[in-house]
Amino acid sequence: MKPVLKTTLVDEIVASIMEAIESGEMKPGERFPSERALAEQWSVSRTAVREAMKALSFSGVLEIRPGSGTYLKTQPTKSTSPKSPQRTSPSFDGQDMEERVQARMILEQQITRLAAQHATPQAIAAIEKACKRIEKCCEQKNVNALLKADYAFHQAVAAAAQNHYLQEAYERILLAGPEWFGITRLPFEQRAADAHNHYDICDAIKARDPDLASQIVLLHEESVWERYNSYYESPLETSKI
C-alpha cells in the first residue's frame, strides 16, 4: 500500500486501502494487518485507522469480525468505492451535538495548556505554519482550504501537547468532519471572522503561558459556537461547560 499523508488522515487512508484493493494487492477474504501495525506503517494515529476501517465497513467493502480482525469482504468497483468516509457519517440530534461541542472545548483547553508547557521549537513552527495557511485561505476566500488549514492548526497544537491519549481523543472528535458541526452552513465571512485568534493562541503557546493559552482558546471556541448556534433548531449552551 502507498504511504499515507498525515495532512489528510482518514481520506488518505481510505484512498490507500481502495487503491490496494483495486490493484489486486489485497484479495477478497484476506485479513488486514492490525490497527497498530497500520498506524505505525502510515505514521498516523490508531484512531484515524479505526475510523477509516469503520467507514469502509459501513460501505460494505470490509468486514470487521470481533476477536478475529478486519477482512476484505468484496472486490468493489470504482463506481461503488467510497470517495470519502463522510458518506457514512450518521445523523445527530441536538443533544449529541451539544455533547460533542462540550467534549471538544474541554479537550482543547487542556491540550492547549500542555502545548504551552511542552511544545518543542519544531512543534511551534508547525503551529505557525498552520496559522499562515489559515491567513492565506482567508485572503483567497478558499472555503475548502480554510477548513483543512483549521484542522491542521488544531492537529499541530494537539501534537505539541505531547500526550498521545489526549491527541487520539481529540482527533476522534475532529475526524467527525466539519459537517457534524454545521461549519459548511455558514457564510464564508462568519467562518473566517475568528481566524485571527489562531495567531493569539500560537503567541500564548510560544510565550509558555498555559493559563493565557487556555483562556484564549476557550474564548475562541465560545465565539465560534455562538455563530453556529443560530443555524440549529436547538441552540447549544456553551455556558454549561
Give me a quick take on this structure.
This protein has 241 residues and is mainly alpha-helical. 59% of the residues lie in helices and 3% in strands. Strand 1 and strand 2 form a beta hairpin.
CATH class of the largest domain: Mainly Alpha
How much helix is in the residues? 55-70%
Main sheet? 2 strands, antiparallel
The helix count comes to 10
- Report the span from N to C terminus: 43 Å
Principal-axes shape call: elongated
Q: Into how many domains do the coordinates divide?
A: 2
Chain-averaged pLDDT: 77
Under the CATH scheme, which architecture of the largest domain would be assigned?
Up-down Bundle
- The percentage of residues in β strands lies in under 5%
Layout of secondary structure:
Blueprint: H1 10-22, H2 35-42, H3 46-58, E1 62-65, E2 69-72, H4 94-118, H5 121-140, H6 143-160, H7 164-174, H8 188-192, H9 197-206, H10 210-229
Antiparallel strand pairs: 1-2
Structure description:
- With 241 residues, this protein is mostly helical.
- It has two domains: 9-72, Winged helix-like DNA-binding domain superfamily/Winged helix DNA-binding domain (Arc Repressor Mutant, subunit A, Orthogonal Bundle), CATH 1.10.10; 94-233, GntR ligand-binding domain-like (Four Helix Bundle (Hemerythrin (Met), subunit A)).
- The protein has helices at residues 10-22, 35-42, 46-58, 94-118, 121-140, 143-160, 164-174, 188-192, 197-206, 210-229; strands at 62-65, 69-72.
- Strand 1 and strand 2 form a beta hairpin.
- It is elongated.
- The N and C termini lie far apart (43 Å).
- Mean pLDDT is 77; it is low at 75-93, 178-182 and 232-241.
